[in-house]
């Protein structure tokens, strides 16, 4: 289930680093530890976007000037989603970087009926490889046109789906059809404009700082509809529970895809 958490920004003009996934990951983990539910203390099948709002860029990062700031949060486990939301809304405010945010309400995204071909965009970078301490090989650029790019994503995805425990071994074996095809026109335009779709990002794992290469690009995914839905609700690639690999549907009006999350709204009123 995917939801959009809408916050009120208390201090317009405040900033976060350009890439602030690690700050959001710390916030989420803090909420889960505070909740004290051992079932979810090490749960990792969730994903989230960067903060969204009206921003301006400076050397110090992204400055937010909108009244509202949005965070997309998602998990294939609805009970986990509700648990996280219940912990978050116990706080009158949360601080992310220099932002002071008050959680206001939640909107639920309508999950589409997936087919075997879906066009996605990245709303946070895709990371292909788990880093190793004092080893920079994970920062090597791998072209999205190479089979290795798609193969690495497939391997990490099947590993996560198997460990998730909701798919039988027969289902996992049936998910062998998988191919990510990058939008070549997009990549060509980015190169012509001398911009980048692959950058190095910081990530913290067990208190160790790593640097990883992340890719942000539109692509078509050829896979079983169950696989399509899993990546839509839990992300693609590695470090999905740290805010990497969140994807969204391409060419879809985001405003028409949401509804007020009444179940959570009702639970808050009691």
From TrEMBL:
InterPro entries: Cas_Cas6_C, CRISPR-assoc_prot_Cas6, CRISPR-assoc_prot_Cas6_N_sf. CDD domains: Cas6_I-like. Residues 114-249 form the CRISPR associated protein Cas6 C-terminal domain. Pfam families: Cas_Cas6_C. Keywords: Antiviral defense, RNA-binding. NCBIfam families: cas_cas6 (TIGR01877). Belongs to the CRISPR-associated protein Cas6/Cse3/CasE family. This is CRISPR-associated endoribonuclease Cas6. It comes from Splendidivirga corallicola. The gene is cas6.
